[in-house]
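chain below, 159 aa
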Amino acid sequence: MPLSRMSDTFGSTVSPDDAWLILRGARTLACRLETHGRQALEVAQWLEDRVEVARVYYPALATHVGHELWLRDFQGCNGLLTFEFATASLHQVHAFVEALQLFGLGASWGGFESLVCPVNLSERSTRYPTGGNLLRLHIGLEAVHSLIADLDRGFQALR
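prediction:
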């Protein structure tokens, strides 16, 4: 009983509404994850062909350094990927993000909408020769051709 009271006091329980939302979302989770992963792979492949992109971090890509481990240990992928600009100042990265119309700014990975989150690693690591300007993307359920067109709009803002 003391453990139960402490759990209630500290709020580490799930409310009935949250539990219902989890159960409701679980019914469509498999088909949503399949769409997230399929579309993210298509976006990642498109990004790899861009001259403005130095590297795409997405284990489902055959060119990713950890692809063999991913194949061994996973059965699918999700919609989360990262790419590194070949050359872009922080100002240009912000211009890229500002030009996007479909991608929302945020880091709540797991919803149905596409999100973008700029990351700068230049102060944390010397591993990134381009200054560490990266973009984290969550590829949502919007039409993939619309997402690619939106990212292309961002690349146009770099010029």
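The chain has one domain: 15-157. DSSP finds six helices and five strands in the chain.
thats it, cya
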